[in-house]
């Protein structure tokens, strides 16, 4: 018997994974509050485009290894899609679809002329040499040529990718066109059109949002006791910003585990150590603790800057923070979200809190298009203005509808995209 359109629509989706289901569940909860038309909600529930490629790489020992690669573009309603490229053993189509959807709401909430995208290659970057990673990057970029471009889709660094990765992507794309196209990627070296303050933007933005929340609550950031999970590009910068603004950072962690010092850690010294040794693995500062122990420490602010699914229904009852700042994407599961809300723990959601990176990426893209560059102070001030405006809109909406900040942030983003989609219509 032939399948009906309704049966096909209800079949399991190619990107159906726990993380994608989590992103859709958040969308379903928020869209009821947002009150957007049903046909608009249905269009926004799915990515516009999902691209799967195979990436052959010649290894240093002469072998050819083929890695799977992905790029998902969730929405181009507001402009070109924007999102990171990650190299990780757990990269899947579903993970990219979820992260692309969150990026759509994030860009819309910050009122950036972008839609959301995300991509990556499933590999273990720690087992690859620099030459192998370069070959992987250049071939992956070549495979993405049909769908990326300065007005179509603009990649950026993410997990296990960096300025050098973006430089290779920019060069590969430019060589196909015959001239330099710095605006094809963001997060690249300053020497080829990168922006000052881009490296620090996500972590610094997390602290800007925490500071704004403290202002709203009548608290002083310099009196806060803070715990930071993750000591990479986001967590490490956030810890340093908190330290420089007078807060006491009592614990930090990376993949090797955590360090705890009740009287406060010397964060600049830990930064210097991590730069020299690559991690905090052999550092003997304070007391060694596990990542699990770190999450349950008593503190005023817990910054989650590692990866997804860190707070779950299992450990949420034991969280001893007054405020949680999501520097990573999707670090709090739906079950944990409900428990923490019931306990009255304020969560600063990822779509708002870690938006500093994409905002300064937007600034970099604008600077590249105009070939006119701004100073660090100018960019930091523009970022603070953008985040403060978005935070105030989310806070006021949460109070108005008596919802969590996460729901308010998602509602704000969804409404922005919905209004644009209603105005444009659905083709044909």
Task: Describe, in plain words, how this protein is organized in 3D.
By secondary structure, the chain is of the alpha/beta class. Among the domains are: 137 residues, 3-Layer(aba) Sandwich (Rossmann fold), CATH 3.40.50; 153 residues, NAD(P)-binding Rossmann-like Domain (Rossmann fold), CATH 3.40.50. The chain contains 15 helices and twelve strands. The strands form two sheets. A seven-stranded mixed beta sheet has the order 9-8-7-6-10-11-12, with helices on both faces. Helix 11 links the parallel strand 11 and strand 12. Helix 4 packs across helix 15, helix 7 packs across helix 13 and helix 13 crosses helix 14. It is globular, with a radius of gyration of 21 Å. The two termini are 30 Å apart. 51% of the residues are buried.
